[in-house]
Specification:
The structure holds 2 protein chains of 2 kinds.
Chain A: E1 3-10, E2 13-20, H1 25-32, E3 51-54, E4 57-60, E5 73-75, H2 89-96, H3 106-119, H4 125-131, H5 143-156
Parallel strand pairs in A: 1-5
Antiparallel strand pairs in A: 1-2, 3-4, 3-5
Chain B: H1 26-30, E1 46-52, E2 58-64, H2 66-70, E3 74-79, H3 80-83, E4 114-115, E5 121-127, H4 130-139, E6 141-146, H5 153-158, E7 172-176, H6 182-190, E8 193-201, E9 213-219, E10 224-229, H7 234-245, E11 252-255, H8 271-283, E12 286-290, H9 293-299, E13 306-314, E14 320-330, H10 343-349, E15 358-366, H11 382-398, H12 402-409, E16 418-419, E17 425-426, H13 431-442, H14 444-458, E18 461-473, E19 482-489, E20 495-499, H15 508-521, E21 527-530, H16 548-575, E22 582-585, E23 588-591, E24 594-600, H17 601-610, E25 624-630, E26 635-647, E27 654-664, H18 671-690, E28 721-725, H19 742-760, H20 773-782
The chains are: A alpha+beta, B alpha+beta.
Amino acid sequence: MGEHGIALTINGERREGRLEARRTLADFLREDCELTGTHLGCEHGVCGACTVVLDGDAVRSCLLFAVQADGAEVVTIEGLAGPDGALSTVQEAFRAEHGLQCGFCTPGFVVTVTQLLSENPTPTDDEIREGISGNLCRCTGYQGIVKAVRRAAEAGR
Amino acid sequence: MTATQPPGTTHSAGRFVGQSVTRREDPRLLTGHGRYVDDVVVQGMLHAAFVRSDLARGRITRLEVEAARRHPGVHAVLTAADLNADAGSLQPTMFQGATPPSPCAPVRLLADGDVRFVGDPVAIVIATSRYVAEDACELVEVDYEALEPIVDPEVALTETERLVHPELGSNVAMSVPTPPDPELDAIFESAAHVVHETFQQHRHTCVPMEARGVVASYEPSSGELDIWLSTQNPHEARQVCSRLTGVPAHKVRVRAADVGGGFGQKYFLQRDEQIVVAAARRTGRAVKWIEDRRENLIAATHARADRIAIDVAVDPEGRLLAARLDHLEDCGAYPLGGTGGVGPFVAMLFPGPYRIGRMGFVSSAVWTNTCGRGAYRGPWMLETVAREQMVDVVARAIGMDPLEVRRRNVVAATELPFTTAMGMELDHVTPAETLEQAVEIIGYDAFRAEQRRAFEDEGRLLGIGIGLYVEPTSMGSGSLGVETATVRVQPGGTVTVMLGTGSHGQGVETTMAQVVAEHLGVELDDVVVVQGDTATAPFGAGTGGSRTAVVAGGATREASLKVREKVVEIAAHLLEAAPEDLEVVDGQVSVRGTPSKGVPLTEVARVAYNDPAELPPGVAPSLEATVSYQAPPITWSNACHVCTIEVDPGTGLVAILRYVVSEDCGVMINPMIVEGQIAGGVVQGIGGVLYEHLIYDENGTPLTTTFLDYLLPTASEVPEIEYGHIETRSPTPGGHKGMGEGGAIGSPPAVFNAVADALALRGATVAEQPLTPTRVLDALADA
């Protein structure tokens, strides 16, 4: 099977790769770039665990081929904390509000919420629930997650 | 919502136990640095994919794998002919005795000669990447002679020609008859009311966000089998893998790092993972298999599929005199060890918190050509579903409010200890108190008034439902009743506790550190919990069955106290003080009331390891203790769920308005985590009653194979949960009770009853689930 060269920026670092056209962005990130924080929960675009930011939009990396990200700026969960490991406002809020249990869906939620708050820094409760309704969590019943978004929005004011 | 503390409730918090400390697991999980099984890379690792049956029942007439074997990048294609003959027992350890505790299917490693459900693994392909492995799966040719499957459990009960497992000679996996009981018959004959209903609980399941996965490698020169596994129970997996492969257990290492949810599905080692382990052993290579979501939804165990017919005899005052149950369980083709055949447990627990006078039951479990039954958060929760839904049916039948029926039947504090009609002794429980607390928080009477007004003035359908239960947590039978903790003060004075737990979201690294810090007398940050690795952890039965707080917590507490005793003994010698005058606080041993006279734990540790000549006479060096704790047969916890809903009579949609849980799990180690566990269970129950349904067509083909078909609740569907806590110590060392499963036990009947209550305004009834818009509209149309 033929291979294609791509070059993109991931978390501020330039990365290059040669890969089959069918290779998903998620597999490229996880296996080729060893950024395993991006998780695969369904591989058909429903659960949102694989959410990353691509050129300013939150996207499902399981539904994109890596070649589609050629030339793009990608931010993954690994790109959100400070260089010293300090948690971001959103990450800190998830911790304070017990917005995670097993942690598997968490990277997708954190990326989604970070993007949501950058677009709408003062969401209403309905906007919060709508904004995270494309991500599935099986542990928390969304209780701590909704509170975490509220807390992060408050902290960002 | 913060924890509600109505007057009269108690809350005992220690310095660490009882505090909502944030979790130490979180920073790594929040930044993408958790380590789940799919993140594990082993040198030279190959990737596996399964060829699975797309027929529910059929004979394999041809299986051709040569084209797949020749495909570039394919290392091996293995079938039953390659793997099955060398396999040892595939059954869990609890099945190794003379009499298996539940239906025992004739499980094979790979399908051999025939297939028995859609998803039955027929071959495993091992290749350089998952992409190549799946390409090669397409090249495996399987021809079948299709046979008419058994899909309906009612048909399975009577069908004697078509058999799911021909070698067993029957589709009935287990049958529990009831002996004649003239006294029970007499109660029914003379009762003022006899109320009957049949409930169907539909098939739905755990659905952890991380599906199953394993990386297994076998090193022929050392004879060591090294396994990374997404599991709740590493030691059980090690035992199974040893029997399966013949590699002695001390050369099998099973490790679970971070585990992305389990809910029961990852408690016992399943067949698919066993195939991967056997393939690694045979090929001498490292093999990774990560289950995809379709596989998870069709082959990773299903749950809950039951039918239960109930008769209840009731006196004129609404007292429940007696009950008869007729239960039918669908255990699929290959139920996962220990989880089929729940009927006797359902009957045993059916009286719950009530003074039901006498009980009779019959129960059958049947094989069908469907995915096997597995544990799901409260595997026998049908007892609460059946009882609580029946209480509401009784209430409507005799014209009494369901809350009043419960008040007239619930066991009061003054009656404890109370022995139920099935011989269960209840004690240290508060069902009546949680009932009252929950209805007070939700404002039951005011809601009833508003419900009447909204219906009469506007035709709106509001409803309220209650789910009240007592739960037998931490059941102390067999290996489940025991955990062992090793608490070690390291030479530098920091503390490691090693446990046989398998945390998969419960925050065990945090809660067990709280227990150590509390009882050893050190700072929380100075304690690290090590678990999930058979090479380091003492033997234990993993995390499941609402048992970690009680059993692992009991062992951790006792081991901490034992180490503390030695710390005090050494410190007393160093300080020339009497041991009974010393206290240990925040890593400092000092004379009570004279903090200046003391010695830090770091110094005690230094002496214990590096300067044994300074030790008191007769005291051995090192500073650690290993304690095994045996839990009582049952540690009861209890809770009451109340929710209010509104049914849209135009669309059939159900909206949950408020949701209240009042619970008593004894001494809470971490209230934040307690509420988190409850919330997760509640929302699984909401999803189960309203949305989630694993559907088979009449050919046994699963129709719900993606998250577009199998609907999990999202943040848009769930209410904000309100909590009330009542704390009654259990008679275990820490006073804790199990609470991991309860949320998923109390919520289904609360939601179901609320919808039924709303529909009853229009004279409509429901007895089957899920309560989809279509079912709700049909019920309203039929009224």
